[in-house]
Every structure is written in C-alpha cells, then in structure tokens.
Amino acid sequence: MIIAIDGPAASGKGTLARKLAARFGLPHLDTGLLYRATARALLDADQPLDNAAAAVAAARGLALTEFEEQRLRGREMGEAASVVAAIPAVRETLVEAQRRFARRIGGAVLDGRDIGTVICPEADAKIFVTASPQMRAQRRALELARSGEDVSFNEVLADILRRDERDSSRAVAPLRAAPDAALLDTTALDIAGAFTAALALVEAARARLHATD
Ligand code: CDP
Ligand code: CDP
Question: Which residue owns the Cα nearest ligand 2 atom 16?
C-alpha cells in the first residue's frame, strides 16, 4: 500500500505521514528533506541556489540516510529548499530515488508537494492536507520558537505565503492536489483529530483496494 500525503508548509502533513507509517508498519520518507539537503549542500559550498548545474550535482550526491535533520529544519532552509525545488533538473534528479522508496515491497508513506501528482500517481491512498495560512504560521512560529529561532508571527506568515506562491506557480510539479486526492483541512483539528480523519480516509482506500483484489 502506497500512501501519498501532500500539502503546503506546516499543514500537518509530516506529522500525519509519520503517524500513519507507524500505524501500518510502513517506512516513511519526508521528501522535503531531499530539497532541503540539496539547498544545504549548495549553501555549504558557497554556491548560489539558482545555479542549476551545481544544484543537480548536489542532488545527485545526496545519500538518503545521511540527513542531519536538525540543520535542515530551520527557517532559512525552508525558503532555500523551495528555490532549488523550482529547478526542473533538480526535480528530475530526485524522482527515481523517491519512486524506488515508494515501490518497495509492502508499501510506504511519502509526504511532500507532488507525491500524488508526479511521484506516485498510482498511490492507493492520497490525502491533500490544508489549513489556513494563519493557523499554519501559528504552528510554524511555535515550532521555530521551540528550536530556539525567535521569529514573529507576521514574519512566519509572510514566509509561508511567499513559499506557497512559489511552490504553486512553478512550471514543473507545482503544489496541487491530485484530482483523486481526498482533501483534509486541519485548521480546526488538533493532531489527534487530524490523525483520526486521515486514518478513516486510508481505511476507506484500503477497503477499495481489497474489494478489487
Ligand atoms: O509537515 P508539515 O510542514 O506540513 O507540518 P508538520 O511538521 O506536520 O506540523 C507543523 C507543526 O504543527 C508541528 O509542530 C505539529 O506538531 C503542529 N501541528 C498541529 O499543531 N496540529 C495539527 N493538526 C498538525 C500539526
Ligand atoms: O515542512 P514544510 O512543508 O515547511 O517544508 P518541506 O516539506 O520540508 O518542503 C520544503 C520545500 O521543498 C517546499 O517549500 C517545496 O518547495 C519543496 N518540496 C517540493 O518541491 N516537493 C516535495 N515533494 C517536497 C518539498
């Protein structure tokens, strides 16, 4: 069973993907980390983020197991990741590794922006997670404060709106719900409530899958 979770920044997709993976005993890939790690490698090498050749080389050089997540989670890295993620050749370089991860025996859970549309259009369950920009900014600001980054609500909201716009308007694999994805608005849901709703959607997809066995 392949579960595809997409949505904008701080909608809660990563939390849901982790919890669904634990529930079904499936491996989980946070695909945002691939773009964050590509951007990190460029910044570490003093390369501009829009240098396509250097970005492709950085993406090729990624080892999926070697993420230093702490260095990739900060505010600056979300923004940098979305700049390199708009380079078509970078996306092309990262497609195969994501598909291999998804197609392992038994299945997988992947979360990102283009899992249901580009990486796994054949996924058994697709959920597009949303929440109001204000709620997402509130969640992200809290998260950043916990990790020691003191950023105001308004700055985080501006970051999120800019990133939404860039991710939605790029030419290749823009942030978009697949036509067959279920929409899950988590604005008024806490983590437990969002998980209950997501679980019901996945169970329904599983029932359909077994019905066609
Ligand atoms: O992966 P994504 O950026 O979409 O979001 P996340 O990392 O799952 O969630 C962002 C923050 O919001 C985390 O600190 C979550 O604990 C929190 N969250 C929440 O408060 N309520 C939800 N329904 C989902 C997430
Ligand atoms: O957790 P949050 O949603 O803030 O960020 P993320 O999922 O780690 O993604 C960071 C950036 O990587 C996004 O703003 C996208 O530009 C890009 N990304 C993408 O283009 N495609 C994906 N499948 C995952 C992330």
Answer: 82
Q: Which residue has the tokens 């392949």?
A: 2
For ligand 1, the distance from its centroid to the CA atom of residue 14, given in whole angstroms, is 7
**Which residues, judged by CB distance below 6 Å to any ligand atom, belong to the binding site of ligand 1?**
7, 9-15, 139, 143, 186, 189-191, 194
- pLDDT given for residue 212 in this prediction: 74
Contact 49, 129 (CB under 8 A): no
Q: What is the pTM of this model?
A: 0.96
**pLDDT attached to residue 7:** 98
CATH code linked to domain 2-212:
3.40.50.300
Q: Could you say which residues of the chain have pLDDT below 70?
A: 64-67, 213
| CA–CA dist 208, 37 (Å, integer) | 37
Q: CA-CA distance, 159 to 137, in Å (whole number)?
A: 9
Q: From ligand 1's centre to the CA of 84, what distance in Å?
A: 23
What's the ipTM? 0.98
Q: Where are the domains of the chain?
A: 2-212
Q: Which atom of ligand 2 is nearest to the CA of 7?
A: 3
CA distance 87 to 5: 22
Cβ-contact 102, 108 below 8 angstroms: yes
Q: What is the pLDDT of residue 139?
A: 97
* Cβ-based neighbour number of residue 43 at 10 Å: 15
Residue 54 assigned as binding residue: no
* Cα 2 to Cα 109: distance, rounded to the nearest angstrom: 6
Q: What's the 212 CA to ligand 2 centre distance in angstroms?
A: 34
